[in-house]
Amino acid sequence: MKSSKINFTNANGKTLSGRIDLPLERDPHNFAIFAHCFTCTKDFSAVRNVSKALASEGFGVLRFDFTGLGDSDGDFADTNFSSNVEDLVSAAEFLAREFKAPSLLVGHSLGGAAAIFAASEIDSIEALATIGAPSNPVHVQKQFGTQLDTIKSDGEAVVQLAGRDFTFKKQFIDNLEAHSCENAARKLNKALLIMHSPQDATVSIKNAEEIYHAAKHPKSFVTLDGSEHLLIDKKNASYVGKVIAGWAARYIEVPVEQTIKTTHAAVASLDDEDGFTTLMKLGTHYLKADEPIRVGGKDFGPTPYELLAGSLSACTAMTIQMYARRKKWPIANVEVHTSYSKDYAKDCEACEKDPSAKIDTFTREIKITSSLDEKQLQRILQIADKCPVHKTLHSETQVITSLIT
After folding, report:
1. pLDDT, tens digit, for every residue of 307-324?
2. Check: CATH 3.90.190.10 for 303-394?
3. CATH 3.30.300.20 boundaries in the chain
4. Tens of pLDDT along 116-148?
5. Which key words are in the record (predicted)?
6. Where are the alpha helices (DSSP H) in 300-366?
7. In a 3-state reduction of DSSP, which class is residue 268?
8. Residue pair 106/32 in contact by the 8 Å Cβ criterion
């Protein structure tokens, strides 16, 4: 996942801080917005891990801090549920302006409730997923404890949540009471996925049932058995992200990955509009090759020479371990670090006179994790030079080229 910081302005002129998470080796096929849980931030573990899983499935994800939280401007005491909804709309406008209009909206806990309302206001949203969302935003009042009465009587109070102090005003309570996710779900004309854990001790799974019954089809429900409300466990959060990505593909346009066939060991395919980003099939495995951004590429994959250096590294590591197993020499791990350059040959007499005297040079460093003695390690070093790719690079080779008609 590639992640970069961004800022955008909400409807009230406040600067909101966010991050754009992108797939590593391709352009995102769709963009999503993640609405974080009550008083959380964009950097909360569940937000990061779900976003990472979505990015691994080809989504670009915008996660940001609601007004007054994290790195975003504004006073939290002046915010409410409606301002969260407005921030989501502003986030969608930012994506449409700077990247691509979002087609997927994901919300966690109260962020899920806000997402239900925001989805109806963002035309580009085609699919919505909620995680542990309450059927009524008023549910968060339970976290205020005895301070709820103080807020209502005195107009405001300081409430400690997760070890942090937050000032809540009566307008926040009044605003919560004016919203119902069940009513919003009845009016929602988007595909809806509801995810909830039966073990959720913060927001009962009964809330998921109420939202599900209120919503129109198409709607889906996935139980997050064994998960807690905040999705602290990375495996659970990653599972959520991958399930959302798979489900969303039924309702939003996700281009099918290009496939190529060959009877050869490798094939590379490059369309004119793709610049240097080249689709490759090596054996039964697909990957992309590219060039660095500094030379006009998108850096969606290794360069051709990096692939070549990688071949030498992999073959060397395999050869060393194969030899060690045969000799019953335990090697816990072998790392082979290889780089490529054009350098003068050692003892080159023509170096200063002839610039073309430079030759292709692979610099290889090997790290062995083992209890082998010095004599054994020296033998391993000799074996490294006997790996098949090493021999190929040192032997006379030929490339026979023809056109396929």
Report:
1. 999 999 999 999 999 999
2. no
3. 303-394
4. 999 999 999 999 999 999 998 887 788 888 888
5. Hydrolase
6. 304-327
7. strand
8. yes
